[in-house]
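retry 2 of 3: previous attempt timed out while embedding zinc ion. Reduced batch size to 1 and resubmitted. Inputs unchanged:
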Amino acid sequence: MKKNLPKSACPSCGYVVDAATGVGHNEQPKPGSYGICLRCSTSLIYTESLTVRAATFIELERLKQGNLSSYQAMQYTIAKIREEAANRN
Ligand SMILES: [Zn+2]
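retry 2 succeeded.
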């Protein structure tokens, strides 16, 4: 988990993003990396300054040529964990 990212807010839900982790590896986000909001699981892109912005339609289309199924599986898992946590409270 990288904790020294500049703080920025998810454009969808306002969740403050200041840390990130790779999936199954320790890769840190780079400008242009895809991300997923841990609160609302919206698709994010890291900017040059490593803040986050919403992924554009074209960027999501580009993802389809790569690892879309594992990316969508991650989004689903995050949403499911959030839902289960909400139901426990
Ligand atoms: Zn969000």
